[in-house]
Design brief:
One of its GO terms (cellular component) is membrane. With 520 residues, this protein is mainly α. It is built from 18 helices and two strands. Strands 1-2 form a two-stranded antiparallel ribbon. Helix 3 packs antiparallel against helix 7, helix 5 runs antiparallel to helix 11 and helix 13 crosses helix 15. The relative contact order is 0.13.
């Protein structure tokens, strides 16, 4: 006896559901223009991309502002010390004043003038020799405070991420992302009007909470809305493009506005943009077909993934590139102020080549990554991340720093574009295709790199100077390189279970009744 089974995936092909798509189209046509605009997927992608842009722009805008502001906050005025002269110099000046009053021209004797010049030179040498060590000590002490300040955001984000994931599952993506915009707005206001170090630390911590809500909520909303893999990849690529654009625009924007307008101005501009984007998100409505689907496949736990050495090698590369860039964010502005006396705009412009090259490489390396081996691409990227660290101490001008910064951006892009697919491949062949944990692993690696990098950079800079810190970062990258070839041919640990766990292709008609009975 032949039975006809209509599965869920084959419903549109069954006769009783032949007009389902037509009814859906007619229902959408009956919606007003206002309702169709609210349900627009393009508008949703645009809002989420702008949210990622503003989040990353706030992260990078403070990079050229905070080091200079904290230094000015702790040392509001450096008054020029008064010169203490001896009696011979005072008598010489009195003699000159008396001669000018009597309209009689007198000149200093050669011995008196040489004595005055000698004493003045000695005074300048003493002032300069005592000023430089004090200035270097001030910059070194400030590096530790800056490291703690920059690291507070990823540390808070690490703590909040697990809680945010559960809250989003309970209350929905859109509501929690709106909460993220509210917290981001409060954080930006605190940045703009905060004048104490403790207040800036609170603003940085609030920014970590906001980033957790906006990033997790936005990506989850895109994953729920776009069920087609190609459309989902395009939508998430747009969001990541906004993230990279914010990292590119933020430093020069912060440096220029801080130099020519003031500290409050860039944050007020960002507050206005955040408010407008939040209103646009409140206006949008997630499409009705965006529903969560429960996967029957049992996903591998995070603790089991953490014990996999190959996944740890892959995530270690992501962590390393992020930590090396965090080194520079914390200490490079201090070293520039100590050695080059740059303007605030120049401090911001040196960070621009990194995200620009990152965006450029990620858009062009997709086809090249398919041709090259991922482990080889990773090795080249890590080498290009560590080697430029040795070039920074030799830079004598602000614009010299642009070259190693650009090389680091190329290296980081090569690592990310190779290791993110490699992590998914490792989970495919070793951990029953637990795709949902891939984003958590990569996000944890990025947060750890952004948190540990500034903290270690401050202490290393204080202990071993800027040159020692750059050498330490390069040596760590070179030590990590021999582990990358292990990803060349990782062993298959659970391939049979992986194949069995994948659902079979849907069948419309099952003609063998005995086979169906045995399976049931």
């Amino acid at each position: 006896m032949t039975q006809i089974l209509c599965k869920a995936d084959a419903l549109p092909q069954c006769p009783q559901f032949a007009g389902a798509s037509e009814l859906k189209i007619e229902a959408e046509e009956k919606l007003s223009w206002f309702q169709r605009c609210r349900r627009s997927k393009s508008l949703l992608v645009f809002v989420i991309s702008i949210g990622a842009f503003l989040d990353s722009m706030l992260i990078s805008t403070v990079v050229p502002i905070l080091p200079q502001y904290i230094h000015d906050l702790q040392h509001p005025s450096h008054q020029t010390p008064a010169l203490h002269f001896n009696d011979s110099f005072l008598s010489a000046t009195n003699e000159t004043r008396d001669s000018q009053q009597n309209s009689t021209i007198h000149s200093l004797q050669g011995s008196d003038f040489s004595h005055f010049e000698t004493r003045l030179n000695e005074t300048n040498v003493i002032l300069s020799s005592t000023k430089e060590p004090e200035r270097n000590k001030e910059y070194t002490e400030e590096s530790t405070e800056l490291g703690i300040l920059f690291a507070s955001k990823p540390f808070i984000q690490l703590l909040v991420n697990p809680v945010v994931g559960r809250v989003i599952n309970e209350f929905g993506n859109r509501r929690m992302m709106l909460c993220g915009f509210v917290v981001m707005f409060l954080s930006t206001l605190t940045y703009g009007f905060g004048e104490l170090y403790e207040v800036l630390l609170v603003a940085r911590s609030l920014q970590g909470v906001a980033s957790s809500f906006t990033s997790i909520g936005g990506m989850t909303m895109l994953a729920d809305t776009f069920t087609d893999e190609k459309k989902r990849q395009y939508a998430m690529g747009m969001a990541l493009g906004g993230l990279g654009l914010g990292l590119s625009v933020g430093p020069p924007f912060g440096g220029a506005t801080y130099q020519y307008i003031g500290k409050t101005a860039p944050f007020l501009i960002l507050c206005a943009c955040i408010l407008i984007t939040g209103c646009m998100l409140a206006f949008t409505k997630q499409p009705s077909e965006a529903k969560k689907k429960k996967d029957g496949t049992k996903q591998t736990s995070m603790s089991k993934l953490a014990r996999d050495p190959y996944i740890m090698i892959a995530t270690g590369g992501i962590f390393l590139t992020c930590a090396c860039y965090a080194f520079l964010e914390t200490v490079l502005p201090i070293w520039m102020m100590e050695t080059m006396n740059p303007t605030r705009f120049q401090i911001g412009i040196v960070f621009m080549p990194y995200p620009l090259c990152f965006l450029f490489v990620t858009t062009l390396m997709g086809k090249l990554c398919a041709r090259l081996k991922r482990w080889l691409l990773t090795a080249i990227g890590i080498f290009l991340t560590g080697a430029p660290l040795l070039l920074f101490p030799f830079c004598t001008h602000t614009y010299h720093i642009l070259i190693p910064s650009a090389i680091m951006g190329i290296g980081a892009a090569m690592v990310d574009i190779a290791l993110l697919p490699e992590i998914a491949h490792l989970i495919d062949i070793r951990h029953n295709s637990a795709y949902s944990n891939v984003y958590a692993i990569s996000d944890i690696a990025v947060c750890l790199g952004a948190a540990i990098g500034p903290t270690c950079a401050g202490f290393i800079f204080k202990k071993f100077s800027f040159v020692g810190m750059m050498v330490c970062g390069a040596v760590i990258c070179f030590i990590y390189l021999p582990t990358v070839p292990l990803l060349r041919n990782p062993p298959v640990k659970n391939n049979l279970d992986t194949v069995q766990s994948k659902p079979a292709a849907p069948k419309e008609i099952v003609q063998n009744n005995n086979d169906y009975s045995s399976n049931s």
